[in-house]
């Protein structure tokens, strides 16, 4: 974009009153604040039954569509094939299960991630 000759000669005015000092509470909004993973409020339906379970003690079980070694080999395939993306997704789920200590069920046997 080329500036017109008339705009080049316009004076620049500094109007500090329009741009006051930023308060420190607003300036520090970039600080990371942890959010709680458990919440106290319960959502219920019309009959009073809880719609959301918030218990952190519920055991989590995932079922892999195949053996870990088989999924690992398939995930290293060509990116043009859907099976590669499918296996890569399940490998991420497997790694998450190991990290959180979830129970893992494969086609033939059950494994413990703990």
Could you give a short description of this structure?
This protein has about 110 residues and is α+β, with helices and mostly antiparallel strands. The protein has helices spanning about 5-10, 25, 70-75, 80-100, and strands at about 60-65, 105, 110. It contains 4 helices and 3 strands.
Could you explain how this protein is built, in words?
Helices cover 31% and strands 8% of the residues. With 114 residues, the chain is of the alpha+beta class. It has a domain at 58-114. It has a three-stranded mixed beta sheet with strand order 1-2-3, with helices on one face. A hairpin with a 4-residue loop joins strand 2 and strand 3. Helix 3 (68-75) crosses helix 4. It is flat, with a radius of gyration of 28 Å. The relative contact order is 0.11.
Can you tell me the overall shape? flat
Helix/strand-derived class?
A: alpha+beta
Q: Which strands sit side by side, in order, in the main sheet? A: 1-2-3
Percent of residues in beta strands? 5-15%
- Name the helix and strand elements from N-terminus to C-terminus, one letter apiece: HHEHHEE
Radius of gyration (Å):
28 Å
What portion of residues is helical?
A: 25-40%
Show unreliable segments. Answer: none
Count of β-strands: 3
Provide the residue-averaged pLDDT.
Answer: 76
Straight-line N-to-C gap: 61 Å
Q: Give a short account of the largest sheet.
A: 3 strands, mixed
Total number of helices: 4
